Amino acid sequence: QLRADRSALATLIDAGFSLDTLASAAEHFDPSKDRAELARLRGESQVTYVQRTAAGEQAVDVELDGLHASVSMLQEPPTYGPELDPDDVLGLVGLDGSEADLSLPCQVVSTGVPQVVACVRDAAALRRVLPDYDRIGRLLEQHDAIVLYLAAVDQETGTARARSFMRSAEMGEDPATGSAVGPLCAHVAARLGVER
Predict the structure, then answer these.
(1) Partners of 120 in the beta sheet?
(2) Which residues contact 49 (CB under 8 A, 6 or more apart)?
(3) Residue 141, φ and ψ in degrees, nearest 5
(4) Lateral strand order in the sheet of 114-120
(5) Left, alpha or beta for 82 (phi > 0: left; psi -120 to 50: alpha)?
(6) Full-model pTM
């Protein structure tokens, strides 16, 4: 079984393995972080890679400046699925529907793959979650979604804090998922008119 050992990543790429092949074979592969690491290993300060996913091909731009890395990806145009009951969705992670950010209703949103986006008013709620993965898995399966993306959006600073829960306890959380950040940004833009 291939493992995405960052020290060997550049060698594997040079030997003909694609990042997408490595991603499907590795347990702990993070496309954004690993593309930044590949650029760092190759001494490239600015580079564009192409990522192949079920949604198609996306350009992934990497810029390195010392220890800081910036990775961005243009995703597919957003599509919006059903709005969901905040009591039902937030209850899956041990929160109450009253903690929902009503200006950003719970909704299925996709920029390539569907995600269940659920926003809360206060970032402190993100520290109190107790995920029920069996129920989360059923919700995600029902909407053909990849993750339940729980977020607290701060409109004043233009930032968000988020947690991303996958279908099972074994899969757990995805600490940095671009496939869910895109739908969150589209959701915020559509509902609040905020673009950055």
Answers:
(1) 100, 152
(2) 19, 35, 38, 59, 60, 62
(3) -65, -40
(4) 79-83, 107-110, 114-120, 148-154, 159-165
(5) beta
(6) 0.75
pLDDT in tens, 76-134: 899 999 999 999 999 999 999 999 999 999 999 999 889 999 999 999 999 999 999 99
Cα–Cα distances (Å) from 156 to 29, 132, 153, 160, in that order, read 33, 32, 9, 10
Asked if 86 and 97 touch (Cβ cutoff 8 Å), the reply is yes
Q: Read off φ and ψ for residue 160, nearest 5 degrees.
A: -145, 150
- Count of residues in the chain: 196
Distance separating alpha carbons of residues 44 and 38, to the nearest angstrom: 9
